[in-house]
Amino acid sequence: MIKNSLNSKVRAHNLQLMVEKQLDILVIGGGITGAGIALDAQTRGLQTGLVEMRDFASGTSSRSTKLVHGGLRYLKQLAFHEVAEVGSERAIVYENAPHVTTPVWMMLPFYQGGTLGKFTTAAALDVYDRLAQVKKSERKFMLDKKSSLAREPYLKAEGLKGTGVYVEYRTDDARLVIEVVKRAHQEGSLVANYAKVTDLIYNSRGQVCGAKVLDQLTHQKLTIYAKRVINAAGPWVDTIRQMDGSNQGKHLHLTKGVHLVVDNAKFPVKNAIFFDTPFHDKRMMFVIPREGKTYFGTTDTTWNEDPAEPTVTTKDVHYILEAVNKMFAIEPLTFADVESAWSGVRPLIQEEGKNPSEISRKDEIFHAESGLYSIAGGKLTGYRKMAEKIVDQVAQDIAQNFGDYQYVKTQTVQLPLSGAAETGSQGFQEFLEPAIKRGMAVGLSEIAATKLVHRYGRNVDQVYTYLGQGLADSNLAPVDYAQLYYGLEEEMVIHPIDYLLRRSSQLLFDFKHVLEVKDQIVSEMAKYYDWSAETKAAMIAEVNQQIALRQAFKTAVKSYVS
Ligand SMILES: Cc1cc2nc3c(=O)[nH]c(=O)nc-3n(C[C@H](O)[C@H](O)[C@H](O)COP(=O)(O)OP(=O)(O)OC[C@H]3O[C@@H](n4cnc5c(N)ncnc54)[C@H](O)[C@@H]3O)c2cc1C
Q: Is the pLDDT at 131 greater than 90, yes or no?
């Protein structure tokens, strides 16, 4: 069954359907893990419902380094199995969503006295190529010092011995999630954001059989029944396990990671670079050019507070800036150069005696006596495989214990996400040019059309249809208007911040533009949703709070400098 529009009316209808019929599976959490599970289970013929307490991807899944990567770093931990698994998943994610995953050549420089030399870098990249089954055209090559500097003049020359160059895939994590959610919805999954699980419910045998859900928009309390419940709540996995009384044994260790964004003119690297920090913790950091900006990170420190909005402290900023200033031949960056930042927490599984960087990123499934399934750890990159693993168990469980379902294996290996097609990356390359031309034909600049085609993939023609509509009544530029309305109609944008931060990433990579358009966006949405003055004020406050978070960080930066 293919369904399309994904808007607030569909949201309300989905919640109503979830209340009316018993689901096969209720998924808690609309990050990449929950979205992947909903898609995998739904395409195996299991009726799923997914509830997300805030917006889709508002947790860790919009706060990553935004790489679909093979986990080269895990070779240091000798985690060969993980490298092999995530490496081959990387290729699958790319073929199923080529519009949100772009291959980029990544430079791995090695220096005199560094942890890696020419031989070890080449050997590590060879092992990586083999384990991750990297295709021929993307296998590593090595550069000597001269060629390295010719390729990237901003690398620090002193002590440089050479670089290994290999391919990673840059992504937009929040958009990857929404494309999975949209495909799950098209397959018949009932999805709703702003719907929070407040309690689990149990049958007479003490087995979990559903959840109480608070509709955060209407404040209604809903009861949703399901044969099985999967807890994919990321950093909140243990909170749900506590609700279930099953938070024993292994538990989560949250670690915080911060990224900073500067204008590419301030840090004009052309290449993505993965480099050793000059610090004792021997962390490695990424530098990634994107949309006229360069972003870099990350830190890795234990986080024991609320995972909802982890902070960016002056210490975090200082750590990252010191690393890039020491390792690059650039005019040293100051705190004032930082345009935006984000901070997220990794839901890792505790390993006694290990420091944050050493804790494995592998995923694990917990099956409680109550029947509650929980899944934690892992990576954005491995989301499809994680979903396959847990749905294998849950589907078998349902097939054995309920007479109306026969086990089916995963269907997602070659399942294009929304915005992609059966023809994979090759088909997307062929789609690109004509789609950009169609955008230009309806009045977009080449740059704007190219951006939209990469952002929305094959859904871009739907975005184009909004270009000429309703503009007479709106102060928004056509390109903003079209994206906002596509978001409202097709991507369940409920709050302005959903659009500004997660559907369009503007709050991260086009901060100044957000300051210019935020009031019009809120007004446009107030019109669309017919908000009361009170609701509109609350929405404005939310946008301003997100901006203030970043302004507050800048103020803290100023006081740190002075
Ligand atoms: C700094 C950093 C960098 C990273 N970089 C990369 C990278 O480059 N590549 C990569 O592959 N991986 C990366 N990761 C890892 C990756 O981001 C995470 O593994 C992944 O996003 C976790 O997704 P999740 O769905 O499990 O959790 P989340 O995205 O946090 O989703 C869980 C969701 O559950 C919801 N929820 C919680 N409680 C309830 C409730 N009671 N009711 C309803 N909903 C609820 C939350 O609101 C949340 O949206 C990085 C992580 C961090 C922190």
A: no
CA 448 to CA 123: how far, in whole Å? 42
Mean pLDDT of 291-298: 94
Q: Which tokens go with 147?
A: 């060629």
How many residues are listed for the chain in this entry? 562
User: Which pLDDT belongs to residue 1?
Assistant: 39
Structure tokens at 170: 């840059």
Which tokens sit at 316?
């975090």
Contact 193/30 with Cβ under 8 angstroms? Answer: yes
Q: Kindly indicate the confidence band of residue 359, based on its pLDDT and cuts at 50, 70 and 90.
A: low
Instruction: Please answer whether residues 247 and 44 qualify as being in contact, where contact means their C-beta atoms are separated by less than 8 angstroms.
Output: no
Please give the DSSP secondary-structure letter assigned to residue 328: B
Distance between CA atoms of 178 and 170, rounded to whole angstroms? 16
Per-residue confidence at 222, pLDDT binned at 50, 70, 90? very high
Q: Whose CA is nearest to atom 35 of ligand 1?
A: 29
Q: Is the C-beta atom of 54 inside 6 A of ligand 1?
A: yes
The answer, yes or no, to whether any atom of ligand 1 lies below 6 A from the CB of 71, is no
Query: Which of 39, 60, 175, 311 has the most ligand 1 atoms within 8 A of CB, as the residue to mutate?
Result: 60
> Which residues are 105's β-sheet partners?
167
Closest C-alpha to ligand 1, atom 21: 61
How far apart are the CA of 235 and the centre of ligand 1, in A?
Answer: 7
- Exposure of 386 in the CB half-sphere (CA atoms within 13 A): 33
Mutate to test the pocket of ligand 1, among 92, 380, 385 (most ligand atoms within 8 A of CB): 380
